[in-house]
Write a sequence for this structure.
């Protein structure tokens, strides 16, 4: 299972994904109400444990967590030592 599939599986288990939403790496988690404040806390704990990163409060912004692609990019930046949105 690749990283995107791990995150999709976590979200699918955690949130009630409506049948009309095809969860993909570009699905907006906030606009589709799949990620709210409670789920975000669980997501952060999952990411920290699974990917051995530390999510800092200042990193909890829409740009880092709206899509699985954004989350994957954030993880990559965090593992490289820089979590500023927009850096690759």
């Amino acid at each position: 299972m690749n990283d995107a599939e791990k995150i999709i599986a976590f979200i699918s288990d955690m949130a009630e994904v409506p049948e009309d939403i095809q969860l993909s790496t570009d699905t907006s988690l906030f606009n589709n109400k799949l990620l709210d404040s409670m789920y975000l806390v669980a997501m952060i704990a999952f990411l920290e444990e699974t990917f051995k990163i530390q999510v800092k409060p200042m990193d909890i912004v829409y740009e880092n967590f709206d899509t699985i692609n954004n989350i994957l990019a954030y993880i990559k930046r965090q593992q490289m030592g820089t979590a500023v949105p927009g850096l690759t």
